[in-house]
Amino acid sequence: MSSEKLKIAVLGGTGNIGEGMVLRLALQNLMAEGVKNEVIIGSRSKEAANEAAKKAISELENCGFDTSKITITGNSNHEAAQAAEVIILTIRFGHVLPLLHEIREALEDKILITPVVPMEKEGDLFVYEPPEEGSAALAIQKNVPASTKVVAAFHNIPARKLRDIVKCKSVYHALVCSDDAEAKKLVIKLTDHMGCMKPLDGGPLKQANTMESLTPLLINLAKLNGFKDLGINFS
Amino acid sequence: MSSEKLKIAVLGGTGNIGEGMVLRLALQNLMAEGVKNEVIIGSRSKEAANEAAKKAISELENCGFDTSKITITGNSNHEAAQAAEVIILTIRFGHVLPLLHEIREALEDKILITPVVPMEKEGDLFVYEPPEEGSAALAIQKNVPASTKVVAAFHNIPARKLRDIVKCKSVYHALVCSDDAEAKKLVIKLTDHMGCMKPLDGGPLKQANTMESLTPLLINLAKLNGFKDLGINFS
């Protein structure tokens, strides 16, 4: 158990996956001994990020949680990244590379987590469309400083279940891959405290393409077989 | 319920996945009402196939099953394919295209099931290495007559669990994809009677690449996280 404060920026934290991630990361301060996460929502607009932070805190209060030990603030994507040790990119692949270019110097020596999935709709179904590097994770690695530790994780967790901090009792496997052993270890620990995820070591970053391709698979299987919010378990 | 006899050739039926498939397909005659599967093991050597068929029957007898309603025979790959309505390719990707070329005329109008996964070992882990068509399934479709109905299925079932007809109580999701609705329906029905699989519609054959890539993922996750014989469940 460490009692260090960990500053985590959730860029795109006002979006679908981002909202659930923010709530779950903040709640770890109440759920797991010694955890002191400080969550910073990043957004293109500082005002929107601030609004989202206030909304998240009041939602936790309304659910009956003691928010005196919880820190959620909002800022611009650049300021949020600058302040954080861990940065989570909960934004669409199409916006990722321009953003990384814009905040490049804020990424030096940081852990950068990508749950990003490049996919396209084709008829009723989704198709995984990785960039020429082989995966979003590898394209991201190519576009950040050499000192940035890229970790791919959280692609396959149904957003609605992640968001549902009170009622969701389901636990899904979450695959974590990286070429940096220490960074992977930290993300596995974060994941383990998330309440709805059981982390598994997914190997090196080269394996991220399979993890990314599971997201369109899950959406397609739900659509084709009449399910909702599918997650994945290995047994 | 149909009382028609369905002749199923398991090419490579003397191998790892093939053995379990043969036993499970034959056992359906006892387990599911109206099913009358006739299983033909195909192999490069007719003698080896015959031996494997005898061994399978005697294994079922030793497990206490009434084999009077069970038909398992052996033949050359070509003769087995010729006699069957459904052909399952339980052989390595490297051997598939030459074999398809050799037995091409026996494939006309047949249902051809591919659980084939092209993968390579890289260090301790496996990497999915699809051919330029995008998947083994699409490469196979390109190399068979236009009248052959290609169905991709059974990639992600742990061989040892499939083989363990008595003790294995685990049930895994099995993804089935095809561009032919009728053929997909038949394979989903076959899968549903397998005892260790719950079939899911995986969509068109174009989606087979994701299903194929799950096999190296499962092997890697088992290796990296200290598990054995991992299968997959969606929930």
From TrEMBL, chains A, B:
Q: Biological process (GO) annotations?
A: copper ion import; NADPH regeneration
Q: Which keywords annotate this record?
A: Oxidoreductase
Gene Ontology, cellular component aspect: plasma membrane
- Matching Pfam families: F420_oxidored
Q: Which residues form the Pyrroline-5-carboxylate reductase catalytic N-terminal domain?
A: 7-117
Query: A single Gene Ontology molecular function, please?
Result: oxidoreductase activity, acting on NAD(P)H
Q: Which PANTHER family match?
A: DUDULIN-RELATED, F420-DEPENDENT NADP REDUCTASE
Tell me the protein's name. Answer: 8-hydroxy-5-deazaflavin:NADPH oxidoreductase
Per the UniProt entry, what species is this protein from, by scientific name?
Methanosarcina barkeri MS
